[in-house]
Amino acid sequence: MLKGFREFILRGNVIDLAVAVVIGAAFTAVVTSIVTNLFNPLISAFFKASSLDKAMIVHLNGAEIKFGAVLGAIINFLIVAVVVYFVFVFPINKLKERMDRLRKKGVVEPDAPVTELDLLSEIRDLLQAQQAPPSASAGRHADPLP
């Protein structure tokens, strides 16, 4: 059971997902700051409120319905979605289209699948390069695996 869990955690996709979550959280903090400190005051000026959260409040039987807060969240989401699309999704899709066109023309060969042996060989070579003195490792080639 633990072996299966370890294999699951060490898969590249899980690690990529963890990195994406951390970067996404940091990115969200930046966008939230932009929305809170730039867009909200501009929009609030139109509603004559100190912040968007305090604009467009409806009182109904003692309850407050905060349409301004919802509008702020929607603006925040739209800004994040637009930036993610134009910074990440759009360029990656264009790159994939270009690579597909080049593959169809025969300019670029299809990617060969990377095996576990290839990855382990790379790791071994990197570790050897880090442990050897700079002069001793110059011009050396890695020994093939037995």
Automatic annotation (TrEMBL):
Keyword Plastid tagged: no
Location(s) in or outside the cell: Cell membrane
Bilayer disposition of the protein: Multi-pass membrane protein
TM ranges: 21-47, 67-92
Classification via Pfam families: MscL (PF01741)
GO cellular component: plasma membrane
Keyword Ion transport: yes
Stated role: Channel that opens in response to stretch forces in the membrane lipid bilayer. May participate in the regulation of osmotic pressure changes within the cell.
NCBIfam families assigned: mscL (TIGR00220)
This protein's name: Large-conductance mechanosensitive channel
Taxonomic source organism: Leifsonia shinshuensis
Lineage: Bacteria, Bacillati, Actinomycetota, Actinomycetes, Micrococcales
Gene responsible for this protein: mscL
